[in-house]
Amino acid sequence: MSEVISNQVLMSKVLFSKGITSSTSCIQWVEKTDTSTYVIVDQTPFHPVSHIWPDHPADKGFLVFEGKQYTVTDCVTGAFDVKNNKLYKGRDIPVKRGEEGWHFVVVHELASDLVLNVSDTVELNVDEGYQAALSRGHSAGHLASYALNKVLEQTYWRKDASRKDVLNNRDFHSYAQVLSLVSENKSTDSYRLGKTLKKRGLNVAEMLADLALIETKVNDVLAIWLETKAPVVMKCEGDALTDSRYWCCDLGFGESITMPCGGSHVRSLAEYKGIQIALTLKSEQDLEMITTAS
Question: Taking the model in full, what pTM does it have?
Fold first, then answer.
């Protein structure tokens, strides 16, 4: 049974895209159940897991109140129904972002025995090491997807495709990706090599025969890109959770990437010692790419 402490809530201002890992925040909403306390604040450095594409895990960290530290056990996307004064969390969210009368917010989950009230001031601290490891994994995954597209573009398409990435290579990653998962210093992408992809013009048989060679070439591209030590910039259209954010990296040589992404990321390719991929055929039509950052 939920106990709602407040009947008003504002949209959360998110700080993680600016590299901020600690904030003093004012509580806007508290909801208690038998097992948890859910808290929404006016601004937060925590990255919540997305309910739509949950590839990037929630940040870990702590809430500090009156000198005591409490573990944030989870952090999820929430949607608040203003008319009915009700909060929906994660997969229970029934509307798309931008729906009139709904505010999308960051929901921090804590232990059930914590007593907090609206207007209390708290401090939120993100586990910087964990967030940085996720950021390295996520940015590495982006680079690997573009490097894979670049290598496949050279040999493995027999006809043009309508969908190309920002580097003007046919977008194998976008066409074939069915699942992605970011973890500490790692990104895992799963691709489906079905009939549709073959019809689009990809020479799947030749590609699979050359997996080891493709892997080597992709790693060579990544090594060249890392040598640029290019900055990574997050461009934000606003501070709300639902405002668009873009991952931007200018690799030089006419290769500049701007793509929508809501995760946390590195600030520069200089943060890497190396990035390497491994390609594994999991079944006849299922290919996995694991990208590992060091």
Answer: 0.93
- Tell whether the model's pLDDT for residue 198 goes beyond 70: yes
* Cβ-contact 279, 215 below 8 angstroms: yes
Domain at 3-126: CATH code: 2.40.30.130
**Positive/negative CA dihedral, 267, 270, 271, 276:** positive
Length of the chain: 294
E-strand stretches of 128-269: 177-183, 186-192, 232-236, 245-250, 256-260
Under CATH, what is the fold of the domain 129-293? Threonyl-tRNA Synthetase; Chain A, domain 2 (3.30.980)
Phi-psi region of 72 (alpha: psi -120 to 50; beta: other; left: phi over 0): beta
Amino acid in the structure at residue 197 = L
pLDDT at 119 over 50: yes
What DSSP character marks residue 231?
B
The one-character DSSP state at 60 is: -
Residue 276 CB partners (closer than 8 Å, separation 6+): 219, 222, 291, 292
